[in-house]
Amino acid sequence: MIKFYNPTTIKTISKEEVESIKTLAQAGDPVACFKLGRITYAWSDLSAEEDYLITTKRLLTQAQRGGVLEADVALAIMMLNGEIEPYNPRRAIGMLEDALKKGNEFAAYHQLCNLIFARFGYKQDLDLAEKILDQLMEHSSNPWFYDLKGEVLQARGRYEDSEPWFAKAVECGITFSYLALAYARGYDNNGKLRDWDAFINTQSKGADEGNMFCMHYFAENQMQEYESLKPEQTEKRDECRSNILELLEECIDNKHGYSAETLGDIYRKGLYDVPVDYDKAWRCYMLGADYAGLGDCYEKLYDMIVQGQIERSTDRQEYLEQFAIFGARLRNRRMQEETVRMYRNGRMTRYAAEIEMYHMPAIEEPCQ
What we know:
Layout: H1 7-10, H2 15-26, H3 30-42, H4 52-65, H5 69-80, H6 89-101, H7 105-117, H8 126-136, H9 143-155, H10 159-171, H11 178-186, H12 196-208, H13 212-228, H14 234-253, H15 257-269, H16 278-292, H17 295-306, H18 316-329, H19 333-344, H20 352-364
Helix pairs in contact: 2-3, 3-4, 4-5, 5-6, 6-7, 7-8, 7-9, 8-9, 9-10, 10-11, 11-12, 12-13, 13-14, 14-15, 15-16, 16-17, 17-18, 18-19, 19-20
């Protein structure tokens, strides 16, 4: 099951294996339904007949009914991302905690991510996360726990100490760990660069292995190089600009939401002397919101309508309300505020229970 934890590793699954999983899922096998649901979620264009989220939910629900605890966890995360109606994060947290009590490692992985990265309203607690990890690894060889052990150490600034953990995860096939491994090999425990060659070579290896975060890094590197060039260095600037666009597009083709947001910013603001193109920016932000559930993308889409950068004459208000509520569910502060403002002005009443239970209290909390 570990291959199905994260989209980065899901995307390494061969076409032959996907077809085999499809056959088993069509025969009603619950584990195959879970796997196909996760594949559909990672590759959002896999389902042609219906929206991929509907397909994903249907497959995961079938797996859930067949007793696959991992399906409960996957559905809970979708609920927390606001991808399942009605929005009910309390129920989602309950599902996650129930699976955790039953010893499910997929649930443990997500709860540890919540503690390490402060997701879904959790407070960061590295001490608790490390304690849980150490206990789990006494009897489990799940390579995702190696990755998270490295993440805890890097969060403490202990880059060199994290290297063996990320290296072990990569050896076990967790290609997601390449970016962190690059920092572990390249930086010391004081956060200073110690080995540029090790850093860049590991990034390159990660990109070759399909890690789009590593590929995105090379795009960012080209952005920095472009900004260092003088205006008269036109040939070099043209080369950097072309590389930026090509690298980001390749990442987007592989469903990397952060690259979609970055490219959206480039087209919207005309960065790196790229002509402003609001239609392309809109497309990129829509993909960023879809691929990675980025609340900031919903905010930018919202602003493009408000600022008249995109015309939505007949359904303008519907777009604004949808972007506001989806962004609010992803804890984007401004979208929470806009959702509550519209609700207090008599709009978005179909979301009344959700707004009053979750978003109104959220805007009363101090910004962190």
